[in-house]
Amino acid sequence: MSAPATNGHRTHEQIAGINPDPIEVVTTEEDAKPALVRGGEVAALAHEVETARGLVVLQDDPALQQALSAQERKAERRVSEQIRRAGRDERRRTALAEIASARRERRDARWIERARASKDRLLDPNRRLAATYRRYLALSAIPPTLIAFGVVFMSATTHDGVVGVDGPWWGYLLEPMASLLLVVSLLIGFTAVQNNRKIPRGLYAFDAGLALTSMFLVVVPWGLRYGFDLGSTIAHLLPSLLVVAAVVVQHLLHSVFRPIFAELYEELQPSRLSDQTSDTVVLYERTRRAIAANEIPVSTSGSPSREAIRKAFGVGKVRSQLAGDAYELVQRSLDPR
């Protein structure tokens, strides 16, 4: 077979019928170094290209824009701590405000309950009377107590002034007799007010006379026996003035509480007619008019027929009996014959 052609033509050697020996190419070290350098550059360039392609793919990733730096993470942490601190402070203020509000509500509830109890007591005449009476009783016990303390001091002073320091024991009874009568007089006024009765005017003059008598027994005998020096006179006069003040206070209590009790007693009196009484009054008036019109017969004694009343007004026997009794009672009151 013939040798292959190059580009469709035979070579010169083939044409001449010559088959040359193969030529052996010899490569030295100096020729191999540039080839190695060129291979390293290509590899480096290829690596750079691959790296660039990776960067091109990743550089538009949104994570690169959203990722925080170390400084930004520290700043965000500080902000978060501040927010949490502010939240704790706000929760603490809110909790304290709720506790304060609950306390106010409980305090207001107690006062509201007291106000309601006071309102109920004021609207109920019985409870108002009881509360007023307890207050009057407590206040009325103070003046006699003061008088009793004054009597202990004044009895010794009166004894020493009348019969002397070494005098008989009956000298201690002079002043208490006047003071005890004064206490009795005050109790009389207390009883009068308690039972809604007026205090006699003579009782005021009697109390004033007893108070002046007590003052006289304390001051005058002592002064006549030991002299009216200013210091001792004032010392002996003060207990007497205390007794006089107690008497005045007791009468002030009487004057203040007496009209209050009178009003409460009047309020507690039944002032409204019952339903049965109102119905009887109405039936009486209708019966009177029917008798005047000769619609209901009347006996010779002036008693109307209960049966006629029942039939005329369509009521029961009990109501007709009450109407007839009311008519008879009114007629006997108007004409006692």
Structure description:
The chain is built from 12 helices and no strands. The chain is an all-alpha fold. α8 runs antiparallel to α9. The N and C termini lie far apart (186 Å).
Question: What is the fold's blueprint, element by element?
Answer:
Elements: H1 12-16, H2 29-58, H3 62-66, H4 70-123, H5 125-140, H6 142-162, H7 174-194, H8 201-226, H9 230-268, H10 275-292, H11 306-313, H12 317-334
Helix pairs in contact: 4-5, 5-9, 6-7, 6-8, 6-9, 7-8, 7-9, 8-9, 10-12, 11-12
In short:
By secondary structure, the protein is an all-alpha fold. It contains 12 helices and no strands.
Mean pLDDT reading: 77
The amount of helix comes to over 70%
Fraction of residues in β-strands: under 5%
In terms of per-residue confidence, which ranges show pLDDT below 50 for 5 or more consecutive residues? 1-27
Number of strands: 0
Order of helices and strands: HHHHHHHHHHHH
Largest sheet descriptor: none
